[in-house]
User: Fold these one by one.
Assistant:
Number 1:
Amino acid sequence: MRKAFNRAAERLRQWFGKTPDGKPAKTGPRGHAVLNDPAANKSTAFTREERENLGLRGLLPHQVATQEEQEARIICQLRREPGDINKYVYLSALQDRNERLFYQTAINNIDEIMPLIYTPTVGEACQKFSHLYRNPRGLYITPDDKGHIREMLDNWSEEDVRAIVVTDGERILGLGDLGANGMGIPIGKLALYTICGGIDPAKTMPVMFDTGTDNQSLRADPLYQGYPHPRVRGAAYDDLMEEFIAAVKDKFPKAMVQFEDFKTENAFRLLDTYRGELPSFNDDIQGTAAVALAGVIASARVTGEDLRDARIMFLGAGSAATGIADLMVKELQSRGLTEEEARGRISLVDSKGLVTTGRETIAANKAPFAQDHAPADFLSAVKDIKPTILIGATGVAGGFTKEVVEAMAELNERPVIFALSNPTSHAECTAQQAYEWSGGRAVFASGSPFAPVERDGKTFTPGQANNAYVFPGIGLGVTLGEVTEVSDGMFLAAARTLADMTGEDDLAKGNLFPPLKEIRKVSAKIAEAVMETAAAENRLGIARPADIAGFIRKGMYDPSYGQPAPVPRKPGAKPPGCPPK
């Protein structure tokens, strides 16, 4: 009987923070330990009872706030911060001290906050990452750690990691080799996994595969936080990655790995090597492909053209461009074209001009799209091949010149022009330029956000072909379904689902994608499509739920405090003097 009473008393302490006589329990985190735990901290929203039970009495101001009031305070202060990089730092600090408030605020204000925590601001944040460094976040692996990676994973605080984003920092956005400063990318991507896809942040892990940098200015910077040596390559690089993947499979057997911002050669090689060993994908190759394909499918509803008749030209022939091209081939095949016919619809232009069969050497990822055509510069190739769709993935600003856009407008009643390079400063053209140079007829999308454009009394709201429309839903479906391999069919399903969710009102405004405020709904639908595809392909690692949609909704992380909140003192009110958006 005594043992049963002790067990009941312990359960009471765990559940209610009280001893059997009703007094506050003294076990477990209390006081500043609670306030310093970002996953547990609610700051001024702790109720009177919680303050008493958790040893917080006197450690917080008198008023008990609602999460909504806290959010309003955050937004007002955010808008007072001078410059986007200061806003990025402010939001990072919020994430470090109150995780649930960070995510709730981001979800409810996604149009305002997503550009601050990811593109375009994350580019500047990565460039300055070592100088902005505050609190540790993520796992760093260097060549000095060879032979120790498995024990390093034991240092991670969580035992059930399901989503890992790893980069080696060699090709960060369009900014090039940023070494260990590239850690800002996995951190930002995983924040979007939670904000957009509802993956529990406790189940995520950002990884910096820091094998050095060939950026001499970084190595010469006394504040640089990374491995201060030239990049390790060849067998030493591959052995270190092999050890990392083996350690992940052992420590976190249900984890999905996303490869991010690797140089083209490594990007394809690592994807081919490991996609069959554990659920993994490369967002630059496959995520970009899915969101671009969704935009192309949606654009056909505007142009009225049959996608089977499309002629698609890429400016850029790296991992993003050829990844998009490969997925488009599969989509065209599904619409009745042979593989040869589908590849014949696609052409690539790189720094040497049109990729042709006459070249002495052609990279393996470009070779399937080489045209039987005389060498040609970009503008000449546009005039000769007469593309209906132009996609930029160069990382170089200004590639779509006035002459190129005018040529596209002359060839097509509604030219489809995608300037996908990030950040905004590296876009092939701006939204303003696309609409102006095409006489307002362009069907435009970009990788980073552009403001609405007014022309001839009409407002164009350019769509952002942001990978955040796709990879969080892919990750949600893969992790909840414990999918054994991430297949091309899942990316096709994601692209078609995203295209279907673009409404006629969105298209009428010039937007080929659903509003960002709907992104969690989009992610849930994509996760459902991924799990349905996995089930059909026999890649689902759990018994197929009878109600997949309900299963996904139940599995999505909810950052609200999860308790009845006190009545706001002034419902809906914002602090006085709050700057406008």
Note: The two ends are 62 Å apart (CA to CA).
Number 2:
Amino acid sequence: MQSKKKKESLGITALYCRLSRDDGGDMESNSISNQKKLLEQHAKSIGLANTKTYVDDGYTGTNFNRPGFQQMIDDIELGFVSTVIVKDLSRLGRNYVEVGKYTDCFFPDRNIRFIAVNDMVDSDEGESEIAPFKNILNEMYAKDISRKVRSSHRLRGNAGEPLSQPPYGYMKSPENKKKWIIDPDAAEVIKDIFRMTLEGKGAETIARILQEKKVLIPMAYWQSKGLSRGGKKTQANPYKWCKSSIAKILAQQEYCGDVINFKTYSKSFKNKTRFENPQENWAIFKDVHEPIIDRETFEQVQKLIGKTRRRNPKSENWERNMFCDILYCADCGKKLWFNIKHDKEDIPFFMCGNYHGNRGTCSSTHYLRADAIEQVVTLELRMLAQCLRDDEEQFATLLADKTNTDITKEKKHLEGEIQKCTSRAKQVSELCIKCYEDNVSGKLTDELFLRFSQKYETERFELKQKIAEYKARLDEVDKLQLGKEKFIGAVRKFMQMEKLTAPLLRELIDRIDVYEVTGIGKNKKQMLKIYYRFVGYLELPSLVKRNNYRENTRKGVELEYIPNSISA
């Protein structure tokens, strides 16, 4: 068996240096160069040669998953290292339990000599009684620093300063690092993604299109610009977009010009894992930077991606219909599903997703062919365009009267609900005070006091949420006063186009209620009720002569359109 002295002369003397922002005002004295110099001098003074330096610059002491430290551990496991020297115990780490594992178990089990120069710890001289206390103090220091950083983080976040890196499509302003400006090249990709979504394309399809066009994925794009960002950097194909990236981009409200802080949080200064924060804990600051996507378009997309979609039929030529997520059952309120009937020819159609034949509760299918709904809606929009063309002033007056009537009615309802909730909230607060007074005086037992106080606290929280929701809706209703201008603009856009497109359809129509077919034989009729964006359901009895329309939807089947209904 070789002597300990001989082993030390043969093994590596590991000089471990670590520096992080946690060191605050000690960063200069703890600089990597100063640590190296100190450790080399100490190793030389006690006759240890064959030194190798392991460095972690910019890594916190609360986490031991550091590249330099892990490389040193690997070398110890392989038997290359005989001695480990650090400046002090805090350089090894600031986690009391983890540092203790290494100094009390890991190093002794492998016959590793451990030296902390400034703390006068040397395992060859026996156990240090002061070392555990120093480790506790080091952890307390890290905890205190973490608390101060969190407090500063919270203050900056609540002041509207962006706490995260700018998302793909933005970059930091050269003049002010706290401001985001648009990155023109990436912003065009963002606009294309939102445009394709409004056209009815899914995330998988959009990802494939971007890959075929050889558009760099965000990480590859940042690397091409020389920007360092966190995330996976080992993607072999820099053009291989995935649907999760598309979904994440579509859900980012920051593209409207907003700053959103506190989306994630960490549970402890020892655990750096980020967890999703409930949305009510977010701090949202609107219109801070220049938007890439207008808010109206963003909200349309959220409606699309927020709804459950049925699995696509297994057809190579299948394409998502533009009326998906717009058609609803007039009886049960559920969305109509898009299907394709495969027999002699592919016939796309819609039917109630809640039909009892498919284990739902609706009594009828509310069957509607896709070509029929497209023809009917196109005819209806042509009629609106004709109204605008014939008498624009009267058309605008009708829209103004319609929107003003609806808005006044809803505002009155919302203001009444806010008043009721506010009044009840005041009553609940008074009841809480009375319960407390009765409990103090002995009229109410502790058990009943806890039960009532919990009940009233829950109700007060629910009332607070309702009031906030009603007020938010009231703000939205106020904005609808401008709706008629946008609606007229969308109708004008339709007048200039040869056919109806998915983006224009969603710009004009909010939803369509589909009723069940009535009558038999040639007298079959089906009612459709169209709700337009900004103005809702619209009747035009005095502005235009509404004729019945007949369209051949397929060989042998003729479709007759009557105002507010279709017949086949």
Note: Residues 1-8, 308-317, 553-557 have pLDDT under 50 and may be disordered.
Number 3:
Amino acid sequence: MKQSSNKNHIGHMSDTAALYCRLSRDDNMDCESNSITNQKKILQKVAKEKGYTETLFFVDDGISGTTLDRPGFQQMIKAIEAGYISAVIVKDLSRLGRAYAKVGYYTEEFFPQHDVRLIAVSDGVDSAEGDNEFTPFRNIMNEWYAKDISKKRRIVNKLKGNSGIPLSSPPYGYMKDPDDLKRWIVDKEAAAVVRRIYQMALDGYGLAETAAALGRDSVFTPTHYWQSKGVGRGGSKSTLEPTKWGHTTIRKILELQEYCGDVINFKTYSKSYKMKARIENPDENRAIFLNVHEAVIDRETWEKVQSLKSGIRRKRTTVTQERSIFSGLLKCPECGANLNSHFNQGNHDIKFFSCANHSSGLRKCSATHYIRLDFLEQVVMQELRRLTQFADDYEEDFVKAIMGHSAKVAQNDRDRKQRELDGLLARDKELDLLFERLYEDNVSGKIDDARFSKMSKRYEQEQGENAAKIKALKLELKKSGGQQLTTDLFLDTVRRYTGAQTLTQRMVTELIDHIDVYHAEKQEDGTTTQQVVIHYNCIGAFEVPDRKDIPEVDVLMETRKGVAVSYTPAQIA
């Protein structure tokens, strides 16, 4: 770090010293000696002693030293490149950073090339006094320190996360409990907005419509809401208008399981302490704790919203601007494509659906699978009346029909898998504790590095094997357990719509998964019939048994001049 004698003076600013301060969690924020205020006092005093009357402070508060992409640091570098700085003074070299190679570039190359004097007070470094042979070693030690701190923090976070303590800040709709900062409590004002968003989703409103409605009512976005309450949150600050909601924000709120009262830890991870980018963690690597805090959205509502066919709703017709409650639900049983919504060019009151693969011009499907909207509405309404009446009048038969005689066997299998999973999860936590103790024993010298390596490798191998088993069990339980949960919810939903007289968006969304529409066929007797199969949520296609007090579906409609189509129920195996 030999200081060049060829100074490039640019006015009085060439004698300006940059006083750089940095503080982050890595540097023990409880320690007053490292506080920004204390650093400023020390640096100002040293600058005066070294004869620098012109000083500029550059500060990065709360940013790790493992990255050099810091606003204050980068501003200082630009000032040096512009020739405004002749000296850089820091409390110690770790203030510049804890990345050995990058910090070494600045201390060994960049500063000398720009004739900048480097002073690190606590480390006794002053480039004006010649090379300091220990500087590279100090940089290495600073990086080792950052790596060690990162490793310890990961262990602590893993222990906290596996115990059910939230590792992230509370989402919009919650806030930290003033009496216990490890708990979340409901923020009533924000929670009301969250509930409104979920209700609009159930009522069939899209992301854009929901965002526009919130904007019209002058509802603050989460970022601006927190700012208005004086709550500091990390991340980039929105430059949009305070009430301009984005589609992404609405979608994230509708997907957040935490609103059910759950804590989900380890949703993301970083590959290295040097890499700040967060990577989404697979479900099997997350720690999920149910019903930890008060729910903003009941689990039944959250499950229903997740089942919505977001992203496949058809664009509304430009003439009527009306939304069809069946958009995104109608399927072609021949090619599997969606049925697109249309209206008759000669009569806009006539709305119909047809197969996307046939009407696109590619003719991937052999038939149009054309169906009138008013015809479909009558078919679905009558089928839903039959379903709800059967559930109401013959509840026991209904339950048996949809649950099946194997329900008990399936439940026993789920119980067995759950017990096995609980045992593996308990062992995983035990291994975490064993590894923590092992690490502490190694640091304290109770066990040598060779034994630490051997034992930790054995623990890691066991955890790896258990992780594969845990992943498989969770997937199996999620499939079967989720089906059981939603089947119970479906039963309650069917009962709620008993006696309904009209179709609504919410009714269709909660009861129906999709509808297969077959192409109308002309029979030998000259009549035209069309099959429609309704696939209900959780239970799939279901044929209501014949009962004398449950009327048959009888729909006959003239779809065009001289042609009448009647509905015929499909035979479900």
Note: Residues 1-13, 309-321 have pLDDT under 50 and may be disordered.
Number 4:
Amino acid sequence: MVMNYPGLPTTWGWIVAACVAAIVLWALTAPTPGTAGERHLAARWRLGRTPLVGKHLLRLTTRHWPLVVLRVIMVVLFLLIIAAGLFGSPIPQRNIATVFTWNIWWTGVIISVVLVGTVWCAVCPWDTLARWLVHHRLWRRPAPHTSLNLRVPRYLKNLWPALFLFIALTWLELGAGITVSPHATALLALFMIVLAVASQALFERSAFCRYFCPVGRTIGCYSQLAPVELRPIDRNTCERCETLDCYYGNEALPPCPTSLVMGRIQQNSYCISCGNCTQSCPQQNIDWQLRPPGVEAMRGSRPHWDEAWFMLGLLALTGFHGITMMPFWEKGISHLARMIGDSGQLLTSFSIGLAICMLAVIGLYALAVGATRFWTGAQLHYRHVFASLAFVCLPLAFAYHVAHNLNHLVRESAGISSVIANPFGTGTLPLCLAETSQRLNHLLIPQTMLHTIQASLIIVGFLLAVQILRHRLQRMAQPGRGHRTALLPMLLFAAVITGFHMWLLMQPMVMRM
């Protein structure tokens, strides 16, 4: 029997609609961002100066052992998940491989971006295992010639490999159904290890982290919205630096794995918070800082073509996750399969549905960009405007991503204590109807609180998207052309996407586990 989660009440739909209308009205009537706004965006607060905890936080980033301990813990947990998936119960609700990976880890990783930016990448078990297997090191500089240290080919030095893998993982997750197969989940984890090890053995530094990892690149994109950053304390000190230990490393510590120079860093996207720069800097000139949320997407990040497509892919694929869990999705795919003669797992029909959903979002965005370029009167190439405005997609995707995954976390993790006690699911039986119903009605937090958080996320995501749009358009618009009129196409795009996301959250969602 298929069980459905109830969607948000209609009242929340009206509340979100009213907030969206108010934000649009504000965007169309408020003056363009001025000097005061720029000063606000430039504000920073060093966490190292925070009373009581500041010094302790700084020690955590300037010493290697805290990260090493966390990496070892993550590797042990990761190996447990692989073992449970390969040798444990095939019942997804009873096996820690599926419950932890799809309900807790993936949601937790995305939420962690708000609190700690890209810190997950610093303790990632894929990269830790790859470095240990190839270089036989957990943190020290590897010995020479432990890998081929080849330069990454130019055609791979972009985010297209990560986007392709992200689409492939979505296809496996939702089409092939690996989320309900502990064995398939373990095989996927092993596949990611193989990719990380092969990349570490072939290429210089951590090419897997910078170019290939779909999880790391998702975190990197979302971290441009994060209220934390790892930056120089005094950029003048970096300008005077002659050794560039943050980039080259030193005798004890390896170089920056993603080839960043701390004195020139402008965005979080490729920083994996590994601690190499904070530990190797001879001037101790690097610290964690607080900043206004979304400031990087508003003015700090440069538009790149491949990054724009990855952000647009994030927006399309997060919405697609929601569509596939609607009761009407299975009926629609079955109808399409009968029309084209598809059989078996209906993977061809699923692939067509995935392509249609992605093309719909891309087409709508492309039209909005074209209209914006026309109304701004900017003498900019369409490709440049396309890339620059793609940052508007980030808060829309992030807000729905977290709101949707909270459903899985709060509703499907109700039996997590029994899974922790018996991670392999030894001797367990499938969920009976009574237990399924109990999990459906006994959430980790009250349902009213869940609905409030979800609706609030959608509102905040739209507000951030509008703020990003206003700041980016201010730099594009030609003097004398109507700035407010130029806002309309992308405002409409953001409002349509927000309305669609809210509509998805208001529908009953099919229970995955």
Note: The chain has a mean pLDDT of 89.
